[in-house]
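F.,

This is the one I mentioned.
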């Protein structure tokens, strides 16, 4: 069994040692052959498209350079259920399975396929909830006489992240980098909550 590791940490101050040890122990125990590894330091709020190592992994999977991807936990794969399931499905389409050490999930088994099916259902639910929350936000703003413009065209999840990071004391510009949105979106989101506009 040819296997590759995918590891991600959110900041340069975090270490991948714990992930590495758990993954390596699993590979040794199952007698798999490690043929590659992909490591990156990037925020969990970033989308799949902004993760160069994950993109490379998906590219290499289409060339069938390996049979399985092993990760420490599902949240290493994506910032949301949608991202995770899209990655799993993209790998499954080319015959590559995923093994998640922390939760002992193996998508090559019957139980793993059932899990993949259920996570797809939750992914659809998450999409619907995001759309619903966004529509409610638009309605609230319009009812208050506000305008729904460019700065509002972000998901409620990102709006929640913006508020959370601001309350933690992050500057507007650092919030932009963390959430991957424009300065105008951050300003507009916080302006509707009358939070301090210090940049």
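My design for it:
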């Amino acid at each position: 069994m040819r296997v590759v590791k995918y590891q991600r940490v959110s900041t340069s101050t975090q270490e991948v040692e714990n992930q590495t040890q758990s993954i390596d122990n699993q590979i040794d125990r199952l007698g798999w052959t490690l043929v590659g590894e992909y490591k990156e330091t990037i925020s969990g709020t970033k989308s799949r498209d902004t993760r160069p190592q994950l993109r490379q992994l998906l590219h290499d999977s289409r060339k069938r350079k390996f049979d399985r991807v092993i990760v420490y936990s599902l949240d290493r794969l994506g910032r949301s259920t949608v991202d995770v399931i899209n990655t799993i499905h993209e790998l499954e389409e080319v015959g590559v399975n995923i093994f998640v050490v922390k939760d002992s999930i193996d998508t090559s088994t019957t139980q793993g396929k059932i899990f993949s099916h259920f996570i797809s259902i939750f992914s659809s639910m998450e999409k619907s909830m995001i759309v619903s929350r966004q529509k409610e936000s638009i309605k609230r703003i319009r009812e208050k006489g506000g305008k729904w413009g460019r700065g509002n065209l972000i998901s409620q999840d990102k709006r929640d992240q913006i508020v959370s990071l601001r309350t933690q004391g992050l500057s507007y510009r650092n919030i932009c980098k963390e959430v991957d949105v424009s300065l105008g979106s951050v300003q507009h989101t916080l302006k509707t909550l009358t939070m301090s506009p210090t940049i």
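Strands lie at 2-9, 33-41, 68-71, 97-100, 105-106.

Talk soon.
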